[in-house]
Amino acid sequence: MKLTEAMVMLTVTCAQLAGNAGVVVWSPDAFNRPQREGNAEPKGSDKWSENREGGRWLRDVHMRGGGLAPPPLTRCVGCWWCKSGGAVHSPNASGGDAGQGLVVRRARQVVATAANDAQGKRRLYENLAQLTVDAINTLSIKYLSIYSGKAAGLLLMRWLSQRSSSIMWDVTPCSTSSSHPHSSADQVLILVLCDYDATVDVLSSALAWDQLREHTWFFLNLGQPLATRDPQLYIPIDSMVVEVRNPVEDIFVLHEVWSPGQRMKLKHALIAIWRAHAQDAGSSDEADGEAVATVGNEWPEKALIISTGRLTMSSRPKYERRKDLTGVHFVVTSINDTRAHNSRYDYVRGRDVLSGYFGDVWELLKNEMNFTYTVMTPADGEFGSNSKGYWTGLVADVLSGRAHVVVAYLSQTYSRAQVVDYSSVLIKFSYRIFARPPERSAVSWTSYTRPFLPGLWVGLALALVALATAFYCVSCFYRRQVSLSGGGAGGGRSDEGFQQWQVDSPLIMWAAITQQGWPDTPEAGALRVLFWTMYVVGVVVVAAYSATLVSFLTVAGDQLPFDSLADLKMLPKYRLGILKGSRLEEYFKNKNFLEYWEALIEPYSDTLMKSYKELRSHALEDSGYAYVGTYEIQRLDPVGACTFRSARQHLLFNDGALGWPRGSPYVQVFDHFISKFRESGLLKKMMDVWYPRPYSCPQQPVIPLGFKQVFTAFVMLGTSAALSLLLLGLEKIFNWCRYEQLRAQV
Predict the structure, then answer these.
(1) Which of 164, 352, 437, 739 could form a disulfide bond with 375, CB atoms 3.0-4.6 angstroms apart?
(2) For the chain, what are the domain ranges?
(3) What angle do CA 663, 668, 674 make, to 5 degrees?
(4) Would you say 132 and 189 are in contact if contact means Cβ atoms under 8 Å apart?
């Protein structure tokens, strides 16, 4: 075989392995032009042409078949001769057939090596395509995005299209990764097949666009693990970044990579192994042996492994794998509140310690995730409200960066939710209006009218008038019958008896309803029915009145004169106190409740306080001072349960949670463990410790009757006596005047 023909064969083989449609081979001057018989052209599709410039020969090799667009000749995979510009260096180049034989043998070795490399690369991309399909099916993802070189990306997509026709995908060159944000609302699997520098650019761009958290990222071709090559690279803990390694043929090992915090070394954990020749979900330990051998002791316990065909995954939850926050230090902002949250410096432990319900939950999280913390308190002592565009209190500490998290009963409001991310709800209480019941006045003008409502009094009066009128009319009828019959009618009674009942009909009905009776029993049947009807009604009415009157006179009243905000607004002497900078301030400044803010809160200087202690102090001193408090908390001590009373209306329900800066990567990991504590019953146990059952007040004392309880009776007695004396005087005057008039006539 001629040396030149061997080089041509080698070049054609290289081009075929690289997928080229055509290639130009350059031959040096030392090679002789091949001899031809006569003027015959070469056979086949090969065509020789002479290039006079430089005395060099060019040969165009035209290959049939499709394929990718022809890249430059120097991209011929594994072809050292092509990469060296066509120069073949052989010590026996001028030594005839021996030198040519050596070149041919070396060419065959190169061809074999290139063929093996091409076959391995083709197998790699085939397996990678199958891994991608398995991952998409496992994660229920419908969109795929690939960062890669053009040839590799199209080759991978060709394999993918053969395995799944339902996947939507796009391919992006590695060089344009920094300007290619993914705006899909659905989760996307992003496959990165770039060199290390381009991969870092992709990571930086995704972090800037906040897409490391939104999508799942697979990185290949890194050569060296990220945690080893660039340990200070920041990958948020709530992202899903996976390194795909290929330590053994037909096996991929998947490691997730994350950063516990800013400026901390990357961590990684094995999450899955993919085997091209897995049997089924129930494959034996022997089938896993080769894969496990590649990862050593990284693989979790057998009970925490799930096999789904080719893919064997760890079943441990994501944040159980990432819970170790050793080295992470949080600055906590909180307000001292005995039951909810309280901080102190523990000299034994040598650090700040939070207590109270929220403090105990935070300590439980600390022990679970192994972080450290210190505590600060806002200078203004407020929870946080937006005042003229500036935030105050706990929220201001987080927004300014002075603190990393709010560990307090931070209520959820619309305005706070725009700047703060809340954790899972830790507690849920309700707000009500509290006030001290008004003291009884020295005397009561309504002591004897309170047992019945005004409507019942009116009904009884109308019934009395109606029955008295009926009794009068029946008496008139019987009196007329007696007069017409000449006496004896009506049971032997004279008309004088009916006349007396006619005149006294109101008193007879009053005597019946008050259970006093009447000395003479009506002998007429109709009159007896009227009398006994009123008497039976009187039994019920008097019994109910007497019982209610006794309770009103002897038991101290503890009811508030209002049941809602609307009732409170109608009482002119009341004002309403709330916590300054709390959720309530935003609540009452809302346009739906602004009228109550303007009427009950804003006009007064003592209605915005920084603690419930101050609110209670004002309410104890002034029965006209009401305040809004948490119903479940205020009733836990004797003062809140027995001294104060709450209105019936629930103003709003109050969800309490931790507060993180907007976009914090720690929200999900902390929510995972809060949910875990809730499901295990730990939160309920801590709730029972800090918020037990409401305080049980002793029975209300019975008050001995005094003058102020029966003042109305004495007033009625005095009024009746005075009226009697007045009538007696008027009668005496009238009789004296009449006597003098008669005497003058005589």
Answers:
(1) 352
(2) 3-116, 119-321, 454-554, 715-746
(3) 135
(4) yes
